[in-house]
Amino acid sequence: DRPSIAWIGLGIMGSPMSENLIKAGYDVTGFTLEQDKLDRLTAAGGTAVGSIAEAVRDADVIITMVPASPQVEAVAYGPEGILENARPGALLIDMSSITPGTSVELARAAAARGIRVLDAPVSGGEAGAVEAVLSIMVGGEQADFDAARPVFEALGRTVVRCGPHGSGQTVKAANQLIVAVNIQACAEAVVFLEKSGVDLTAALDVLAGGLAGSTVLARKRDNFLGRDFRPGFRIDLHHKDMGIVTDAARAVGAALPVGAVVAQLVASLRAQGDGGLDHSALLRTVERLSGS
Ligand code: NAD
């Protein structure tokens, strides 16, 4: 018998992910701030409701997919929040990318109410969400991970428990560091190649087949070629993630010299009003620096 699911946060990721659970046969009740996203859930066969309390009241599993730590705290705490309104024994899975410390604190606060928590941030982007091939990095108790595995397998392809509460978020922070540096490297190569007069399509084709090939290069290729910076993954969110990894690395004494520079470039792009663009728009920063 499949657990009933409450889904909070139906954005770029939450909408297609919740639809994959519906396709897999789960009953999904959802709440989010935009009416059009609630309509989309209804059209997909889910149940849209008007509050968090209503969404979580009868749920066995509650999934949150909201932008950042403050939104996770807003949906979890307070009289209208998840912890106050979910039934004891429910499992809360936060799939947002947030500060590891916020996940640890959430697990502690929830345990006091008999609610179990996993942090389970994801990688793979909108395409990975749509195709249910996300990489899911999980922190929390092994038994809760085992219980949640069928739900994770309806959403992703690579599902790994990384350790105790917060460790999924720590791994996600590392993921965001690698992705940002990789995008920056690709953007620098694109500008260099174009200024050199080399055919960019041919160059990216052959680069993709060698050691320089990467998921970033494959997935962002068309963004680079067409200067198509519709999100995808917004610079605002990657700025948030560079802050998370910078703080977490400083706390443990890990040096991120290149990551720190890329964090500054992401911040600069945002300061120039491009926070709503896809993170492949780091290309714009390199173009500006190159006088393109
Ligand atoms: P989004 O902005 O498209 O969606 C966020 C959703 O959260 C919105 O629908 C909004 O209504 C909802 N929300 C915010 N505050 C709320 C509240 N108080 N109550 C109810 N709903 C609320 O963001 P997204 O791109 O879907 O990203 C969600 C999370 O997933 C972020 O942490 C992001 O870093 C992470 N992520 C995104 C991607 C990507 O490619 N977009 C990939 C991996 C991870």
Automatic annotation (TrEMBL):
Its EC number is 1.1.1.60. The keyword Zinc-finger does not apply. Transmembrane segments: none annotated. Residues 4-162 form the 6-phosphogluconate dehydrogenase NADP-binding domain. GO terms for biological process: glyoxylate metabolic process. InterPro entries: 6-PGluconate_DH-like_C_sf, 6PGD_dom2, 6PGDH_NADP-bd, HIBADH-like_NADP-bd, HIBADH-related, NAD(P)-bd_dom_sf, Tartro_sem_red. GO terms for molecular function: 2-hydroxy-3-oxopropionate reductase activity; NAD binding; NADP binding. It is an enzyme of class 1 (oxidoreductase). The active site is at K172. Pfam families: NAD_binding_11 (PF14833), NAD_binding_2 (PF03446). Residues 166-285 form the 3-hydroxyisobutyrate dehydrogenase-like NAD-binding domain. Gene3D superfamilies: N-(1-d-carboxylethyl)-l-norvaline Dehydrogenase, domain 2 (1.10.1040.10), NAD(P)-binding Rossmann-like Domain (3.40.50.720). Keywords: NAD, Oxidoreductase. PANTHER family: 3-HYDROXYISOBUTYRATE DEHYDROGENASE-LIKE 1, MITOCHONDRIAL-RELATED. Belongs to the HIBADH-related family. This is 2-hydroxy-3-oxopropionate reductase. It comes from Streptomyces adustus. The lineage of its organism: Bacteria, Bacillati, Actinomycetota, Actinomycetes, Kitasatosporales.
